[in-house]
Amino acid sequence: MNIIKLSWKNIVFKPWSLVLSMVLFGLGIGLIIFLFLLNNQLQDKFDKNLAEIDLVVGAKGSPLQLILCNMYHVDAPTGNIPIQSIKPFLNPNHPLIKNVVPLSLGDSYNGYRIVGTTFDFLDLYNAELDRGEHWYHDFDVVIGSNVAKTLGLKIGDEFQSSHGLIEDPNLVHDDAHGFKVIGVLKSTGSVIDQLILTSPKSIWDVHDHQGETTDSTEDGHEGHDHAADDHDHSDHQHSAEEAFTNADLLENSERDITSLLIKFKGRNYQALNMQRSINENTDMQAATPAIEINRLYSLMGVGLDALRAIAILISFVSGLSIFISLYNSLKERKYELALMRVMGSSQAKLFSLITMEGVLLALLGFIFGFLLAHGGMELMSEVMREKYRYNFSGWIFLKEELWVFLGALIVGLIASLIPAWAAYRTDIANTLADG
Amino acid sequence: MIRANDLTYNYVRGPSLSFPSLKCDNKEKLLILGNSGCGKTTLLHLLAGILKPKAGSVYVDDQDMTSLSGNNLDKFRGKHIGLIFQSSHFIKSLTVKENLMLAQNLAGEQQSIPLIKEILTSLNIEHKLDSKTERLSVGEQQRVAIARAMINAPGVLLADEPTSALDDKNCESVIKLLQEQASSRDASLVIVTHDARLKSFIPNQILLS
After folding, report:
1. Which of A27, A76, A270, B89 has the fewest Cβ atoms within 10 angstroms?
2. Are A42 and A190 members of one domain?
């Protein structure tokens, strides 16, 4: 029997009091850790998917929506832009542009977005094929690792796409040509894991087949009036050398795409001026991902800071509960403390006994909060995955949690100081005489 | 052996008390009798080093306790003096065994389960080794209190009103146990009480007035 064992025995002797202190303290700690986990994983997702893209060009609307839709694939497109308007950017000898990647969006399969694009899109995320081959042919798709894993798709499987990003049987392009899985990408930890990739032409053809005649859909798609069966798919077959490129876009200048992802050769004045020039002089808008994401961070930051402040407040109030618990127990245990003195305990030992109890209570509260936060994150990751197709995890551990751990112990220590001082000053003679 | 010479004590807002000198050798028993309020408990606390006398000295095993202070006094008391009170208080969160182990630990002694079993056996409560003290009867609690006071083989056993709340049968039982334990371990036994029933058990007496 030593002081640590005695502290432990004392705090578990009153289980309900222990549970109350532990839950109160754990809730505050859990909320703080949960916010760290959420913030860290959100930032990680945002940062990983920046993919060094300097500019996104799309239809006029909200610049944040443009970025969220075309880089993070969590929002609807702002509309479409005619290829005719983007011809200058597709020039391979453009003095400012190093790389330009077109995106045609609007369709999905079981909530996973289908992206019509070129092979350059893979380079943005350093994505490689895990198995199969690239989308050389029309209606061929290469799927991200999470799509393959979650939907159980394998090479050779076929499916019909749906309009928009919502899983709704009424929006399935029943009469259009189906897509065929011909490749699966290795996991990258970026948004490409959640995407289904094909050529822009396949996207156009699906909508041509669908025979829609609306000028503009909810997602900004323009339909074309084609019969479903007047299309000979053998015409679409490409050889490996005929993969869809930006040059093919130029040959379809009457068509639309959703956006262009642009990488500059350098960050000079002219490059920086391009955004302003596009926004002021064209019917399109250009947005800088880094700026929009920083704006989003600052918007989110206010909320996260407020929540963090509340969590810290809860923790301190919970620290108060540890103080009250210890202080009340002192009244009941004053004779025990006097007895310990009689049996040879020093005043310092009584002081350390009570502080040890405070620290142990805080430690248990931390463990409870830690499990609560990581368990909550893991549970929420399912919801987030379903809603945003992003992978969040409760199995990620941050160094900030070490600081929270130290903070929790310090709160426990501070909460126990006054009761410990009262124990230190126990008047043995009076207490024993009263007993 | 315990010896006290010309002890006086001043209460902060109360009277000054003077106590007669006393001596109790190893294996001897001393009964200090007195009515309520005459300073019996104060004298016991002075003998145990819980209170500091204004004047006089207390020697336990040839150590002047009044010259000790702080940790040294606490350690000395834990090792050389066993204390028994009218009400048997324990650390409620611990079992009988753990209470005795704590007494060994606080006195700086080696924790020994065989010794604990031996002393509990001598008091006929070895079967209560793992019981929580709250679940013991008053008589059993009194025996555990004696075991705790004796566990470190102190040279002096001080008892404050150990029989006041007991009926005649239990009174006799407890006083005999105290005497047996003190004798078997060569300890001095000093009892302060107002219980006149003890006069017949311990002839060596001091009357406080």
Report:
1. A270
2. no
